[in-house]
Amino acid sequence: KDSVTLSWSSGRHQARVWHFPFRLEILCENKVIVTFNAKGKLWFEALQDPPSSVGADLCLHGFRNVYGLPEHSDDLQLRDTRDGEPYRLYNLDVFAYDLHSHLGLYGSVPLLVAHKPDRTLGVFWLNASETFVNVHSQTGFKTKKNGRKVRPRTDVRWMSESGVIDCTVLLGPNPQQLFRQFAQLTGFQALPPLFALGYHQSRWNYDDEADVEAVDAGFDHHGIPYDVIWLDIEHTDGKRYFTWDPVCFPEPTRLQRRLEQKKRKLVVINDPHIKVDPDWSLYCEARDGGHFVKDREGQIYRGTCWPGDSSYLDFSSPETRSWYSRCFSLDKYKGSTSSLHVWNDMNEPSVFNGPEQTMPKDAVHSGGWEHRDLHNLYGFYQHKATVEGLITRSGGSERPFVLSRSFFAGSQKFGAIWTGDNVASWEYLKISLPMLLSLSLAGIAFCGADVGGFFQDPEPELLVRWYQAAALQPFFRGHSAKMMKRREPWLFGEEVTAAIRTAIQQRYCLLLYWYTLFHQAHTAGLPPLRPLWVEFPGEHNTFTVDHQYMIGGALLVCPVTEPGVQEVEVLLPGSGEIWYNVHSAAAYRGGRTLSLPVTLNTVPVFQRGGSVICRSEGHFSCTADLHLVSLQGVAAGELYLDDFHSFRYRDAKSFCLRRFDMRSGWLAAGGEGMFDCDTVVQSVTVLGVKTKPSAVTVHVPGEELQHYHNFSLKLRVTTDWEIRIS
Hints:
Elements: E1 3-8, E2 13-18, E3 23-28, E4 31-36, E5 43-45, E6 52-61, E7 65-68, E8 87-89, E9 111-116, E10 119-125, E11 131-138, E12 141-142, E13 149-150, E14 153-162, E15 167-170, H1 175-186, E16 199-201, H2 209-221, E17 228-231, H3 252-261, E18 265-269, E19 273-275, H4 281-288, E20 302-305, E21 308-312, H5 318-326, E22 340-344, H6 371-374, H7 378-393, E23 402-404, E24 416-418, H8 426-441, E25 447-448, H9 460-470, E26 476-478, H10 494-509, H11 511-524, E27 529-530, H12 532-535, E28 549-551, E29 555-557, E30 567-572, E31 578-581, E32 587-589, E33 592-597, E34 605-608, E35 611-615, E36 623-629, E37 635-641, H13 648-651, E38 656-663, E39 666-672, E40 680-687, E41 696-699, E42 706-708, E43 712-716, E44 721-725
Parallel strand pairs: 16-17, 16-26, 17-18, 18-22, 22-23, 23-24, 24-25, 36-40
Antiparallel strand pairs: 1-2, 2-3, 3-4, 4-6, 5-6, 6-14, 7-9, 8-11, 9-10, 10-15, 11-14, 12-13, 19-21, 20-21, 27-28, 28-29, 29-34, 30-33, 31-32, 31-34, 35-36, 37-38, 38-39, 39-44, 40-43, 41-42, 41-44
Helix pairs in contact: 5-7, 9-10
Protein name: Glucosidase alpha, neutral C
Domain Glycoside hydrolase family 31 TIM barrel: 190-517
InterPro entries: Gal_mutarotase_sf_dom, GH, Glyco_hydro_31_C, Glyco_hydro_31_N_dom, Glyco_hydro_31_TIM, Glyco_hydro_b
């Protein structure tokens, strides 16, 4: 009479809708896990057409630990907001943002993730207007009166300025399934070209072509690998995007060709504001084509940004996005080449003389939509249009690289994100870890923070520790403001140069592993960067840890984020696990906290027993070294390969996915795909066996057995084979 119940999964899951008071319960095995409108906070303002101002509340039964809602400079675990401000989702240009704040930053993903030992679930509130989220958590307890046990719970209230109520509950039940469900809903992480996973060198700004070439030569001279060098706004002709300064960058094509000869790329900035200049053909084309946002009076909206008086492209319009994409064609973007990639900045959007340094909410977009309705999508749409422009430039064959500062749910489909204008301090280094973990949980897998801090000058120890941390994070870029001292890695003395060189070299040694993890993100939604509880969901002591994390399922890292440290405490989860220090090969049992000595040259990294990782030597080469860690005689791992730059892996199935499995002394390699390459396995490192192996027998189907008395091999990765280790 009062409710209707729908069931699925053979009755295991149910949705029960109550008539009065209205509420919706989601049940698993007859136990309520989520209630929508539990406290009757469902709200929409009907005074306008369409309705404005919407809100709703949900109760997450049995959950005490909640995460997500990026972007905020705060701990990974969301804090109770009863005694403070709600979490705000409103994309803003916030220079040197406050730490441990609930205020909105550059991007927004309205996904809340809740976790307990037996379940992980998510709540996705699809709304691009200004949104506030209140979180009230309650631990479990027994009542004094009758000793009745009350389950933990978290009450979440969403409030958005405009739009409709569009709320999705993701049921998991485990973290991996939740990631896939959210990716199926909003999009899977784009598979980056391999160069994008290397080290990027940037500054606001490198002065001219000679400066760029000198920095490029400096990396070679000091033996430090890198893949990409960046140009900020000063490379343009008077802050006009799609142009080059005729004095400082007179031959941009030649510069790009010289970098390309070394297999290096150039990235240039391209912001959404267009300089108001009636003598500039691109401005006139955008104006005459109706591609600018309007003000409430129907005139072209004008605000102030880097060029001065500016108008803002209306990326919500498909026609504008298509026009903007065409601007990246080689015949239109003079001085560009196919090796040029792009950086979208200031796209919250940033308006220096606007309210909260952004666009007024009553500005008008295509279709009559007010800016308030889609504010958090503005940067998302520029990112999308830029990516489509670079793909079209290559005839649809090449994977682009585009970095964006602003983002929304689904931005992972387009490329990389970074945490904006941070500061050179230990506190900002430390907060970057939970910020990146929060982004990773929300689907933004290709993320990073400016190494060394964008603003202020880092002390040498801080710079080293930041390089060490960032080398173990997805997007790896050094960047700084033009008023700061130069900070190329070789400017701080040989000890610092050596430490930074080692950190970057170790990044390149793991490049094949990172690439394989991004294949998993691209196909299964699994983030490369993972909080400990993702891999150890039943261990309560991992639920609040955000100073260390997993890279994939095999590596545990604990970056050093405090000055003068000589020893760090590292939680090694899993009572049945064995962890191996990758530097010393020392073994440690899990389920304990380890005190580990460190020097300026070391950062704690452990490989998990039972895993196989492929490493390469030097600045990436066609060789792979298998690092195999046995756990009770068993180990497994994957290696993904393709041509590292095109869409042939997708369009022609030109890829190679190899799976390595060790059982009963045999290490077997098999897999799928039709990609052939020259990559070979040249060595196998084995840890976790009782006696030191002395010989290797190799069996390749159709060939005679080969015997080795050392571990120096030459086996094609794309060939099936088995190794007997004895």
